Amino acid sequence: MHELENCTVPLDDVLANTGELTDRLRDARSWTQRFDLVESFLLRRLDRSGAPEPSLDWAWAHLRRTGGSIPIRALADDLGWSHRRLIVRFREQIGVAPKTFARLVRFDRAVSALRAGRGLAETAFATGYFDQAHMTRDFRELAGTTPASFAAATLESGGIAA
């Protein structure tokens, strides 16, 4: 899975039987419908795939619970694993390094906070960013926009930033 990190590939090259999904996405009238379609499609596929080993399932859940704020070395220590072993196994079974996953969890929390109408500084602090500049860097890299622009677009579109 990690071989696909930072790559753009056609969906059909990665997943089989995506024609119906593509057609339904094209016909969807809103971003909310599109997100629901993709989520449903991926959840059905996830049900058919093997689950990660229990230790990694725990690590994944712990990163979610802590909002991505636990240091990766501490996570490895909690598992009784070396830092390197955690990184290698996490990438093999989850698809990204644990630090990348933690970053995505923190970003997701920031997105939710901004959608709820929280201010930029408050969001940065509440979601574990060192400062607003670090949050802005993640938004530029992950969403292609600044948090302020994202928040404005979210308000204009009724909760869905395009």
Provide an overview of this structure:
The model has no long low-confidence stretch (mean pLDDT 87). The protein is flat. The protein has two domains: 11-48; 52-162, Arc Repressor Mutant, subunit A (Orthogonal Bundle), CATH 1.10.10. The chain is built from ten helices and no strands. It has 162 residues and is mainly α. Helices cover 68% and strands 0% of the residues.
Number of structural units classed as domains: 2
Q: Helical segment tally? A: 10
* Mean pLDDT score: 87
Derived structural class: mainly alpha
Sheet-strand content, in percent, reads under 5%
CATH class of the largest domain: Mainly Alpha
Radius of gyration: 18 Å
Name given to the CATH architecture of the largest domain = Orthogonal Bundle
Biggest sheet, in brief? Answer: none
One letter per element, helices H and strands E, the order comes to: HHHHHHHHHH
Cα shape: flat
Low-confidence spans: none
Considering the protein shown, what is the CATH homologous superfamily of the largest domain?
Homeodomain-like
Short description, anyone?
The chain has 162 residues and is mainly alpha-helical.
